[in-house]
Amino acid sequence: MSDRPLLVVEDLRKSFGDNEVLRGVSLSCEKAEVVCVIGPSGSGKSTLLHCINHLEAPDSGTIVVADQLIGYEPRRGHLVALKDRDTARQRRDIGMVFQRFNLFPHLTVLDNVTLAPRLARGIAKREADEIGMKMLSSVGLSNRRDSFARELSGGQQQRVAIARALAMSPKLILFDEPTSALDPELVGEVLKVMRDLAEEGMTMVVVTHELQFAREVANTVVFMDDGVVVERGRPKEVLLNPKTDRARLFIARLVGDGKEK
Ligand SMILES: Nc1ncnc2c1ncn2[C@@H]1O[C@H](COP(=O)(O)OP(=O)(O)OP(=O)(O)O)[C@@H](O)[C@H]1O
Ligand SMILES: [Mg+2]
After folding, report:
1. Residue minimizing CA distance to atom 30 of ligand 1
2. Is residue 117 domain-resident?
3. Between these two residues, 261 and 144, which has the higher pLDDT value?
4. Strand order in the sheet with 7-16
5. SS3 26
6. pLDDT of amino acid 3
7. Structural domain range at position 154
8. How far is the CA of 198 from the centre of ligand 1 (A)?
9. CA 235 to chain CA mean position, Å
10. pLDDT mean across residues, the chain
11. Which of 19, 21, 222 is the pocket-test mutation for ligand 1 (most atoms within 8 Å of CB)?
């Protein structure tokens, strides 16, 4: 692998109709780095994550993960869209954890975790179960392997969703407000799992309103507003000493709302 950052996003643009949602976003994330993305609702944070794993195709700009251009291949000076099968293969290296877990409620916890490795990586059930149990124990849920996903609390379901992402051995995990659908008393257990992952060297891009988590765990904080990156830097700089009025206002409002804990 080259010494380029694990994730490099360059001049990313994306519109929905005439709504230009990303207006030239660039950012990078080194291996084992945690980048937290903050910003107001509608600023394009989720769209950015969806473009990174090609759930949405960008209009222009490039995304490179572990030296792989996502979604396209250069051919005679042009970028040509990859076949679905090839983007699916690329996507396996990029874990995604959503706000609303998206587990299969009628499957067991272990089956939720092993489904993708079995289907997408073709790993046999026995081996997949072994990997799955390892991942479940890393999120503290090996004792719930046979429960149906719907029987778990929100915090537990989100931890299963993280185990599911980990079971694919991703190079990068994208988190989209992983704790904002949870009751306040369940937020801590999910943040703890994420903190452990960061300490183990997982590369993570985390969209979050949890400023304390960002302050303590992020290497870099990126503040987005209206489809552009307005500020980026060390958490202390961006969160405690923002340079722009927009960032200052946003952070003050979050703290004021008591969303920040
Ligand atoms: N699939 C889509 N089709 C049309 N418009 C979309 C689509 N996805 C997002 N948008 C629009 O793009 C803009 C940015 O949305 P996005 O979800 O990226 O914002 P966000 O920063 O994640 O906001 P939030 O904090 O509320 O999650 C919004 O105006 C939204 O309505
Ligand atoms: Mg969003």
Report:
1. 42
2. yes
3. 144
4. 19-29, 7-16, 60-65, 68-69
5. strand
6. 84
7. 104-169
8. 27
9. 18
10. 95
11. 21
List of residues 6+ apart from 41 with CB closer than 8 A: none
Evaluate whether residue 114 is within a structural domain.
yes
List Cβ neighbours of 232 (8 Å cut-off, separation of 6 or more): 27, 220, 221, 222, 223, 238
> What is the per-residue pLDDT for 259?
56
N-term to C-term CA, the chain: 39
Q: Specify if 122 maps to a domain.
A: yes
Q: Atom 27 of ligand 1 has which residue's CA nearest to it?
A: 41
pLDDT of residue 256: 81
Q: Please choose from 47, 54, 55 the residue to mutate so as to test ligand 1's pocket, defined by most ligand atoms within 8 A of CB.
A: 47
Cα–Cα distance for residue pair 116/40, rounded to 1 Å: 33
pLDDT reported for residue 5? 97
Given a cut of 70, whether residue 131 has pLDDT beyond it is yes
In the reported structure, the alpha carbon of residue 111 is separated from the centroid of ligand 2 by a whole-number distance in angstroms of 28
In the chain, how many domains are there?
Answer: 1
Tokens of 113: 């975790």
The rounded Å distance from CA 227 to ligand 1 centre is 10
Tell me if 255 sits within 8 A of 243, measured CB to CB: no
Nearest CA to 44 out of 33, 65, 34, 58 is that of 58
Q: Which of 147-151, 159-163, 246-250, 253-257 has the lowest mean pLDDT?
A: 253-257
Residue 143 lies in a domain: yes
**Tokens, residue 85:** 């099968």
pTM of the model: 0.95
Residue 2: predicted pLDDT: 73
In this prediction, residue 261 has a pLDDT band, given cuts at 50, 70 and 90, of: very low
